[in-house]
Amino acid sequence: MNIDKESDIAANLQIGPTTLGMVRIYVEAPEISLPLDFEPEEAEEIAEELRAAAARARAMSKTPKPR
Prior knowledge:
The chain is α+β, with helices and mostly antiparallel strands. 34% of the residues lie in helices and 30% in strands. The chain is built from 1 helix and 3 strands; from the N terminus they run E-E-E-H. It has a 3-stranded antiparallel beta sheet with strand order 1-2-3. It is flat.
């Protein structure tokens, strides 16, 4: 699947700390449960990437579409 392709798959996303000092991103969808654990520094890098992607998406939505 390409990152730009739309999908009909719905998933739940939970993010929080673990008892071992990791940051867990937990993705749950039909037929899948995916716990992803990251060191706090890795989680901060992911957060920065999310913020940057949000800024780019926001800028794209303000750009007039070619006709």
